[in-house]
Amino acid sequence: MSPRSAFRRIALAAVAGVGVAVWVFPVIWGLITSFKTERDVLAYPPVWLFKPTLDNYREVIFGASSILPNLWSSFVVATSATILTMLIAIPAAYALGRLRYPAKRASGFYVLVTQMLPPIGLIIPYYLVLQKLGALDTYSGLSIIYLTFALPFAIWLMVSYFEDVPFEMEEAALLDRAGRLRALWYVILPQVRGGIAVTTIFVFLNAWNEFMFAVVLGGNRVRTVTVAMFNFISVEQTQWAKLAAGAMLAMLPVILIGFFAQRHIVKGLTVGAVKGGGRR
Amino acid sequence: MSAAARPARTLAAQERRFALGLLAPALVVLALTTTAPLVYLAWNSLQRLDLAMPWLSGFAGAGNYAKMGSDPRFWNSLLLTGIYTASTVVLQVVIGLSLALLVLQIPRGQGVLRIAAILPIVLAPVVVGMFWRTLVLAPDFGLVDLVTRTLGLGSHNWLGDPQLALISVIAIHTWQWTPFAFLVLLASLATLPPDVYEAARLDRASAWQRFVHITLPLIRPAVVMVVILRMMTALSAFAAIFAATGGGPGSATEILNLYAYRTSFAELNLGYGAALAMVLLAITLAISFVMFRMRRARA
User: Fold this and answer.
1) Most B CBs within 10 Å: which of A12, A22, A23, A142, as the mutation test of the B interface?
2) What is the distance in angstroms between the Cα of A139 and the nearest Cα belonging to chain B?
3) ipTM over 0.90 threshold
């Protein structure tokens, strides 16, 4: 290796390293802060060596402003929205991806357009309707509005997995007079198990992170963890260590999910446009 | 012949029925949860509906839309939406693409970068906005101020000064979503055939020429796709700005989406808020229509 290419490699690695640091460091900094006392947080210059404390975590878990009820709210809303979404999305995606029927292009396009709607356009009518029905601050109200962004996304992501299954599989099953529903259940669905898992993870992640719907349509009873974090900052502006500890707990599930599902993330993030703009 | 055609036809009919049966629940739910609310939104945008002054409620015709013409806050929010969307999308694509091109040259360690890139993407935008407001951008104690103070550039009120605040929210959005552009473009670059580059190198094409004449045309569909998706996200950006500045100071970071939200749920003027949301909806759909046409024309 010539000295020039060795230098080039080092320079490249350095630039890439800066990129990583910029993305990771704020989160690491938050993690470090969550183990500091409030006094250490506001030390200048910042202290790198400090006596770590678990007080912040104790406070946000067992204290007066515990976020456990909020974690529970997020869990209930995200889980019910995810189950509902998957139950409706999987059959629809199978039809869109593998069956022939009239107006197929139009129905696919319709699903795609619903994915592009700005949430602010939906939340005003939802607020008015749920208010009239007395369904503000309920789990069902919030879970249903989550379908508006989860369902189109899940349908398109599942279509891409269904399309990867060879068509011979169904034909063989149908020749055996298996019936279409049985062919779908016993032959095709086992082939897309991985896709179902990835889609479920993504829908859950998006529902967990949602904020605008939750802050408007939630309330004292249904307060998700994103809303709780927001309230935290408006109420206790200066308690950064506690805030950091709460944020770490709130984000732990999605960070773990992201870490384990990282290979599939690109596919999940790009799905709508890949399909909708191209062949279909 | 006819014996074979009849089962084929009944099979097709059976397939059609099956498909519609599977699809019906999704289409019904989407119609009820997205299309019907939008019709109701359009209807409300024609109403005077002010929860702070309910006795004035009634049909307003195009009144809410006419009001926008002389509403400086609306024009300001429209301008900010343009600045915010254009700058964040350009920054994400330029930084993401440059980084992807660099990383491709590194033989090892791409996996580490990929994991690092996923971290900002999975975080809730409201937590990102909150983190930046406190740990990163707070005067005196934030990370950025620590750096500028060390470099002798002094302390700044990154979210309190109108111009700096706009730059700050653009930086926050760029920080969170550049990894997306990076990951998608990296995946797209990795699929390019190496032999065209060999040929170009033999023809003594410079690195820049190879990039402009070979790489860019090949990855154009991926770039257009990233631009479309990033524009959609930027147009309805909310939680990070809301947590970092709340649209302020004043209305310095109040993009149209935030203006519609504040009008509806802080000032409780839902009629005017609905009209503002209709404008954002029209802009979003118009832009995606144009972008998809571009994509199809060139792909």
Assistant:
1) A23
2) 16
3) no
